[in-house]
Write a structure and sequence with these properties.
Elements (H helix, E strand, L loop, with lengths): L1 H7 L8 H7 L4 H14 L10 E5 L5 E5 L8 H22 L1 E2 L1 H7 L5 H8 L14 H17 L3 E4 L22 H6 E4 L5 H12 L4 E3 L18 E3 L4 E3 L9 E4 L3 H10 L3 E8 L4 E9 L1 H20 L6
Parallel strand pairs: 6-10
Antiparallel strand pairs: 1-2, 3-5, 4-5, 7-8, 9-11, 10-11
Bound molecules: zinc ion.
The site of zinc ion has 8 residues, from strand 8.
């Protein structure tokens, strides 16, 4: 209370001290104290949802300032991250002639490839959920990746990410699935040295991960869903599933061999699956053909037949 007596230059009873400090003191030192007291009561930086917050200045005017808890990466960490991003991107580009945001996330160790597989199989609702770092670091890494890719003259190509399930739903990257972030995540950067046709094929291939159906060597298997069996199965996490249970039992088998017919029929079919069979002698799965929608197959066969007739008519051979 010695301080109060000094500041006021008057005698104060202890119980009046706080009341008087706010209302009656006129001296500069006491005004500073009162301001300090009012700051303790009212938070100076109320948070706003839009990333800005309102700060009241000393004259009582409100100012909009960028939220104070927005994270800025320091230049040293940013340089380190850039080094990791570029190393991962260069490796993917060298291996496949293109590089995707997912390749970078896996390459720098933020995304486990086994977990990525679960997402590709439609078992994780959005990828961000399983990336092992915070959003601002992901976004920083993606910015670094895009500027590296653009500076290197890579060609951006938006692709599609479709779940490797019979339903073939579109895979989501971000929690909200926003119209800006999703296309950026789906964009692959292709080597500018490749001819355009090769780039198109690469993007198409990456876009459509194929659903694999197995023609098992051993016919003694049981569907984990219905207890039935069949001559084809889809491997799911709990075990093999039959064509009826995965909704592919209406598809027709087109054996491999006619590349043109396969390509045309596939293009017309909303659903398709690759049929593979294990080769004991070669120690790997080999492609047997395609399961395809019967009407797509019929249409493709009709079109090819018509084309053949027309080219014969013009004196051309169709190969
Ligand atoms: Zn079944």
């Amino acid at each position: 209370m010695a301080a109060a007596a000094e500041l006021g230059g008057r005698r104060h009873r202890p119980e009046n001290f706080l009341v008087e400090s706010a209302h009656t003191w006129r001296e500069p030192a006491s005004r500073a104290l009162a301001r300090q007291a009012s700051r303790q009561v009212k938070p100076a930086y109320p948070k706003a949802a839009n990333g800005f917050c309102t700060q009241i200045d000393e004259d009582g005017r409100s100012l909009h300032v960028k939220s104070v808890d927005r994270i800025h990466m320091n230049p040293q960490n940013r340089r380190k991250l850039a080094g990791r991003v570029i190393k991962a991107a260069e490796a993917a580009l060298a291996a496949k002639n293109y590089v995707s945001p997912v390749d970078v996330l896996v390459g720098i160790g933020w995304l486990d490839s086994a977990v990525l597989k679960h997402w590709q199989q439609g078992q994780v609702d959005y990828l961000e959920r399983v990336v092992q770092t915070n959003l601002s670091r992901i976004s920083e890494a993606m910015k670094l990746f895009r500027s590296w890719a653009a500076a290197k003259g890579l060609v951006p190509k938006e692709t599609h990410y479709i779940a490797r399930t019979p339903r073939r739903q579109t895979l989501r990257f971000s929690k909200r699935g926003g119209p800006t972030i999703e296309p950026l995540c789906r964009t692959h950067w292709l080597s500018g040295e490749l001819p355009k046709s090769k780039r198109e094929r690469l993007a198409e291939k990456a876009s459509a991960p194929e659903l694999v159906v197995i023609h098992p060597l051993n016919s003694a298997w049981t569907c984990h869903r219905c207890g039935g069996t069949g001559n084809l199965l889809v491997m799911e996490n709990p075990g093999p599933a039959c064509m009826r249970c995965v909704g592919l039992d209406d598809l027709e088998f087109l054996s491999a061999g006619n590349a043109l017919l396969t390509r045309r029929a596939k293009a017309k079919s909303a659903r398709h699956a690759v049929v593979v069979r294990f080769s004991k002698s070669r120690g790997r799965y080999e492609r047997q053909g395609l399961l395809i929608e019967p009407q797509a197959l019929a249409e493709a066969q009709r079109n090819l037949a018509q084309q053949a007739v027309m080219s014969v008519g013009k004196g051309e051979t169709y190969g």
